[in-house]
Amino acid sequence: MAITFYDLCGKNQKRFSPFGWRTRMALAHKGLDYSLELVKFTEKQKLEFSGQSLVPVIKDGETVVNDSWAIAEYLEDTYPDRPSLFGSTEGRGMAKVIDNFVTRTIQPMIPSLIIADLAANVDSGCLEYFVSSREKRFGKPLTEVQAGREGRVEAALKAMEPIRAVIKDQPFIGGETPTYADFPLFAVLQWARCGSPFQIVPADDPIHAWFDRLLDAYHGVGRSEPAAA
Amino acid sequence: MAITFYDLCGKNQKRFSPFGWRTRMALAHKGLDYSLELVKFTEKQKLEFSGQSLVPVIKDGETVVNDSWAIAEYLEDTYPDRPSLFGSTEGRGMAKVIDNFVTRTIQPMIPSLIIADLAANVDSGCLEYFVSSREKRFGKPLTEVQAGREGRVEAALKAMEPIRAVIKDQPFIGGETPTYADFPLFAVLQWARCGSPFQIVPADDPIHAWFDRLLDAYHGVGRSEPAAA
């Protein structure tokens, strides 16, 4: 069967969606080939076939799956002979807790650190939509949302402590090799890396070295996406 | 080898330490027998041999291990033929992330919901120490710390969402049977159950049914500790 992966893109086909990156890493981990369909912010009609409007979506033969977690479970169950995303049945539920923890606790702290910079990486045709929808969400101009970000970095770094407590002692959350448990925070930091030059994680933080290892994983799929200048 | 488990106790040998419960469940999961040494708040000298003053501590032959996570790893490595606490190598690191998430995010929200009630369950000889040390920590009388707790329940329940997202669909975080990943939040809720009659988790919350299943696990070791009246 042929897989098609629908992922969000910005200017110059730049891909920074934190949910898209979860799926991109999962496909890389499974070693699955796929055709890529890039979807701009204003091209949500491309996803109509999935019954909703958010990336990531995959179409595998006749099967359509949206939501990054649902995609991870689908890939694990459909391609059991490929490297396991979770390591074990027990690891599947544990990875889901970690995914939810990152999505609810760490991920919401990132926009106020990068959002105005991110706008500069949005395709010009989508810029008005991006800015007006985000300004409506935050209730103020994006430059104001981002202002004073230096003072908010410490809280974001502190929120990463449950993961730091593990990867300071071993290469990845699951041990010697990456598992899906690594992907949510990786994806959040990759969103920041591709969307803004602002450095969130200091070079001497164990999270920094762990992120570097994940950028290099799977033939460097993460590093292949250029960092924001 | 014979294991001795040093756990905190209150009035009538009541055991409510949230770290002690992590270890108690781990020992039950492994099916290991042990002698119990109860330690009152004012009997910390009983732990001097461990080089620190906090429960839980286990002594296994000549080996002394303190810190609930270190004990979990010790038991897993020393008794590999017993049921695995983590399910897999990958699950060990994932469970550690979850343990740290609960300890840092959920556990600190509990004292202001139960602390004055908990004092009523402390041994009379330890009460002055307990109250003065806690009042110093919070900077006000324990009744004032606890006042208005109804307004803080929602935040505590919301903090449990990463775990709820998993156990609403399956019996335990790791699937059909408990793993160590369940024990940190179980232990926190058991601390509350044994220390206060205040109901934090509503009966219709999936967390409530999950907690009930864990109270029944391992021949009901959790339920054997009476709830606070």
Protein described:
Two copies of one chain form a homodimer. With 229 residues, chain A is of the alpha+beta class. Chain A folds into two domains: 76 residues, Glutaredoxin (3-Layer(aba) Sandwich), CATH 3.40.30; 132 residues, Glutathione S-transferase Yfyf (Class Pi), Chain A, domain 2 (Up-down Bundle), CATH 1.20.1050.10. Chain A is built from ten helices and four strands. A four-stranded mixed sheet of chain A has the order 2-1-3-4, covered by helices on one side. In chain A, helix 1 links the parallel strand 1 and strand 2. In chain A, helix 1 packs parallel to helix 2, helix 1 crosses helix 9 and helix 3 runs parallel beside helix 9. Chain A starts with a strand and ends in a 9-residue tail after the last helix. The model of chain A has no long low-confidence stretch (mean pLDDT 97). Chains A and B meet through helix 3 and helix 8 of A and helix 3 and helix 8 of B.
Topology:
Two copies of one chain form a homodimer.
Chain A: E1 3-8, H1 18-30, E2 35-39, E3 57-60, E4 63-66, H2 68-78, H3 89-106, H4 111-119, H5 124-138, H6 142-146, H7 153-159, H8 161-167, H9 183-195, H10 206-220
Parallel strand pairs in A: 1-2
Antiparallel strand pairs in A: 1-3, 3-4
Helix pairs in contact in A: 1-2, 1-9, 3-9
Would you summarize the structure shown here?
The structure is a homodimer of 229-residue chains. Chain A has helices spanning 18-30, 68-78, 89-106, 111-119, 124-138, 142-146, 153-159, 161-167, 183-195, 206-220; strands spanning 3-8, 35-39, 57-60, 63-66.
